[in-house]
Design goal:
Aspartate Aminotransferase, domain 2, globular, four-stranded antiparallel beta sheet, 2 domains
């Protein structure tokens, strides 16, 4: 018998890419946030109860009874043609008016779309540029492909073009192969900020000068609170931008329907890669989304969602303004699901998390949104799922936890609380140091 028996007898057989895999900061909270006494400001779960569920249920039942031979059968690897046509109608709302259904690949959520794009373009050791912080599910995909992530700083207006150009020059000097920029330009996950129009123009100029491919991930673009959708990056360049979309935030995450819009040559490779993974996306859910877009007032439903999320955003910001201790700052999103909060100097969101859970409030520590585990002083707050009164109570509990942490640090003289200064309690995004590091292996579905 071995002196030190392994817990896993197959440990020596795993691929190198599995080393370091761990549960995401969001998934690790699931058993906690399911407890009724805990108010979750953690996961980005859409408010699907705002849908006309009886109508949706009848629609799906009619599909099976009337078109069961098609909806319950295998389908095309590229996706249901009628759905791809309707997807082009959806993208037209963001200025993408030249898209063809032949360029659309239907995927199992946009998470699969991002995985396919990364598989098609990235070899081990390649560099992917991504905002810092960045969507946790994207970092998991990049790690699985053994790519390296270099973060590009953001501020209140989104990704900083000058920092992007500096990163490109550094990579060129170091001999690194940059495969693409991954960006969430609208209502960023997790930072909540939106790339300004001026910076969109600058970004596309940089992309042209440096021959940079852009992967535009846009699950939240139709959920703006103050104004209509911004013109997509893809609307500005059909060959240099690959667009990822999803119905998870505007219809249902449980149906797992997303898409990739890509040039035809790329589309062919995406379809082949998708067929190797899943043969074809599920037929029933594709037919359901297509029927929903054909027969239901989906534009009005999106407006209803946006109004609901705006009320919850307002409850979040009002509570933060009223209750958070001095030295705490946060972003002020104009749409989407998330607020990005920076703790007073010296506090650690990851270390504070067990005390927050003990106080019956949950959030996501910032370290999950960086490739190197940075961001311990940040947290993501999600306002999409709880009711406004729950949000207010959750923020109240969180503020008390932060105040207790400040008292603890003051007692042990680890933080000079006198050095805290008011910073307007307004929008702020971290001053992120540019890094080069292997991506984490964290995974989570579709922008949540």
């Amino acid at each position: 018998m071995p002196r030190h028996p392994r817990l896993d007898p197959l440990a020596d057989r795993y691929a190198a890419r599995t080393h370091g895999m761990k549960t995401s900061e969001i998934r690790a909270l699931f058993s906690v946030v399911s407890r009724p006494e805990v108010i979750s400001l953690a996961g980005g779960m859409p408010a699907v109860t705002a849908l006309p569920l009886d109508v949706v249920g009848s629609m799906i039942g009619d599909l099976v009874s009337g078109l069961g031979a098609q909806t319950l059968q295998y389908g095309s690897g590229q996706g249901y043609p009628q759905l791809r046509e309707r997807i082009c109608d959806v993208m037209a709302l963001e200025g993408i008016t030249d898209a063809s259904a032949s360029e659309v690949v239907v995927t199992v959520g946009s998470q699969q779309g991002l995985d396919l794009v990364t598989r098609v373009f990235c070899d081990p050791g390649d560099v992917i540029l991504a905002e810092g912080p960045s969507y946790v599910g994207a970092l998991g995909v990049f790690q699985a492909s053994e790519a390296r992530v270099r973060h590009v700083p953001m501020d209140d207006d989104g990704l900083i073009p000058e920092a992007l150009e500096e990163a490109l020059l550094d990579c060129r000097a170091n001999g690194d192969r940059v495969k693409f920029l991954y960006t969430v330009p609208n209502f960023h996950n997790p930072a909540g900020v939106t790339l300004s129009e001026e910076r969109r123009v600058a970004l596309m100029d940089i992309a042209e000068r440096y021959d940079l491919l852009i992967v535009e991930d846009n699950p939240y673009g139709l959920l703006g609170f103050e104004k209509g959708p911004m013109r997509a990056l893809r609307a500005r360049d059909s060959q240099r931008v690959i667009y990822l979309g999803s119905f998870s935030k505007t219809f249902s995450p449980g149906l797992r329907v997303g898409w990739v819009l890509a040039p035809l040559a790329v589309r062919e490779k995406l379809v082949l890669a998708s067929e190797a993974q899943v043969l074809c996306p599920p037929s029933l859910t594709q037919y359901a989304v297509a029927r929903y877009l054909d027969t239901q007032p989906w534009r009005e439903q999106i407006k209803l969602f946006a109004e609901l999320y705006r009320d919850r955003r307002d409850a979040t910001l009002e509570s933060l303004d009223a209750l958070m201790p001095e030295g705490t700052t946060w972003t002020r999103p104009e749409g989407g699901f998330y607020v990005w909060l920076k703790l007073p100097h010296g506090l650690d969101a990851k270390l504070m998390q067990p005390r927050a859970v003990n106080a019956h409030v949950a959030y996501v520590p910032g370290i999950g949104f960086y490739a190197d585990g940075a961001g311990r002083e940040y947290m993501r707050l999600s306002y999409c799922y709880p009711e406004p009164d729950q949000i207010r109570e959750g923020v109240r509990r969180l503020a008390r936890v932060i105040e207790a942490e400040l008292d603890l640090h003051s007692t042990f003289d680890t933080v000079d609380t006198g050095s805290f200064r008011a910073v307007g309690r307004g929008p702020r995004v971290p001053d992120v140091e540019t890094i080069v590091a292997p991506a984490t292996s964290e995974r989570y579905e579709d922008g949540a």
